[in-house]
């Protein structure tokens, strides 16, 4: 066992890993391996601190939210789902459940996510589930979220160009720095896997969540709810987590030679071979914020820091390129696991700007 000076308070290095010693309990909570870097350590530390933070207030909502999250967390695959509960606890620390009404909910969403309509909808959904549970517990009689109307987020119009995508992709592998007046180039340890990640996002036109959670084999505990590579059938079974509780739309995507090449690259990366195609050095799936961080850093290295590309835009780029290649809207709808064509058109309709061929002449006064 080795102990070294902690990089931050109450964080220690032991046996090649960062550990946080929790206040009061003095339990050692493993954060990550030292080789994962301090950025990853700080991310994990923030997440662990948020789990045990105490919400001071006079209302009973924080206690009820804790109970609701504890009972229902297993039913939600989204890793951020418990964090929604912490937002609610902070916002309603001094509110009792029998006081809750529509204005409370509207003000909560407006105060915290005024210019973020997508997040407003996410939090309304969480609150609605919580209030339904409270109704079942006979703690309230009506769900105030049912009368909270929100504007639908406008479809993004950003389209990643092929050159920009290629530049970001290349910058995931290496970075340059100066030492002793010399310009040096170094490899990014996680670069090859992150490159496989965005390649699969593009080649399959699926949501990044499905690619992060893609498995080599079916999950025996949830065979109908997981996305996995079926070599025998020559397809990838995508079961989109975003739609599993609504339409249940799914798609079997043929393993093309291009996809096969990326799968083989991913299989050959790292010593630990886990069940996930895109995996960390420990064989676990990447967290969404870790993948986003890698994307942003590579974008900055490519000189595109001020261009507002996100990982979600890769899906729109893929569908737009597929349309340009001649695939019809029905094929694109099936690929994207959408329930109707309008959803698909939101990704591609406004991205191809038509060129007008109309030619006019400025009217001139007739000569006398």
Largest sheet strand order: 1-2-3
Largest sheet: 3 strands, antiparallel
CATH architecture term of the largest domain? Orthogonal Bundle
Helix content: 40-55%
Strand content: 5-15%
Please give a structural write-up.
The protein is an alpha+beta fold. It is built from 13 helices and eight strands. The protein folds into three domains: 11-52, no CATH class; 61-147, Tyrosine recombinase, N-terminal domain (DNA polymerase, domain 1), CATH 1.10.150.130; 162-348, hpI Integrase, Chain A (Orthogonal Bundle), CATH 1.10.443.10. Helix content is 41%, strand content 10%. The strands form three sheets. It has a three-stranded antiparallel beta sheet, with helices on one face. The protein has a three-stranded antiparallel beta sheet with strand order 6-7-8, with no helix packed on it. A two-stranded antiparallel sheet has the order 4-5. Strand 4 and strand 5 (182-187) form a beta hairpin. Helix 6 (162-171) crosses helix 10, helix 7 runs antiparallel to helix 9 (257-267) and helix 7 (191-204) crosses helix 11. The radius of gyration is 25 Å and the shape is globular.
């Amino acid at each position: 066992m080795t102990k070294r000076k902690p990089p931050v308070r109450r964080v220690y290095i032991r046996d090649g890993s960062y550990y946080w010693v929790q206040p009061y309990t003095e339990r050692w909570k493993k954060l990550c391996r030292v080789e994962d870097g301090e950025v990853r350590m700080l991310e994990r530390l923030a997440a662990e601190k948020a789990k045990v933070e105490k919400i001071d207030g006079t209302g009973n909502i924080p206690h009820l939210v804790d109970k609701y999250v504890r009972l229902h967390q297993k039913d939600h695959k989204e890793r951020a789902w418990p964090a929604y509960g912490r937002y609610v606890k902070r916002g309603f620390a001094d509110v009792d459940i029998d006081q809750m009404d529509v204005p409370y909910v509207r003000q909560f969403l407006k105060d915290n996510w005024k210019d973020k309509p997508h997040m407003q909808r996410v939090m309304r959904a969480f609150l609605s589930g919580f209030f339904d549970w409270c109704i079942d517990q006979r703690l309230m009689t009506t769900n105030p979220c049912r009368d909270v109307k929100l504007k639908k987020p406008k479809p993004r119009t950003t389209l990643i160009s092929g050159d920009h995508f290629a530049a970001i992709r290349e910058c995931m592998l290496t970075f340059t720095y100066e030492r002793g007046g010399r310009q040096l180039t170094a490899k990014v340890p996680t670069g090859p896997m992150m490159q496989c990640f965005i390649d699969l996002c593009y080649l399959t036109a699926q949501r990044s969540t499905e690619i992060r959670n893609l498995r080599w084999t079916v999950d025996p505990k949830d065979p109908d709810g997981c996305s996995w590579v079926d070599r025998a059938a020559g397809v990838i079974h995508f079961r989109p987590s975003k739609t599993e509780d609504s339409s249940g739309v799914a798609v079997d995507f043929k393993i093309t030679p291009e996809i096969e090449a990326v799968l083989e690259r991913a299989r050959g990366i790292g010593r630990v071979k886990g069940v996930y195609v895109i995996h960390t050095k420990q064989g676990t799936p990447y967290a969404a914020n870790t993948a986003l961080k890698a994307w942003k850093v590579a974008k900055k290295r490519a000189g595109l820091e001020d261009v507002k590309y996100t990982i979600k835009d890769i899906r729109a780029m893929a569908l737009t390129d597929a349309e340009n290649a001649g695939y019809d809207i029905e094929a694109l709808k099936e690929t994207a696991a959408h329930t109707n064509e309008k959803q698909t058109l939101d990704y591609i309709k406004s991205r191809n700007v038509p060129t007008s061929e109309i030619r006019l002449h400025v009217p001139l006064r007739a000569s006398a």
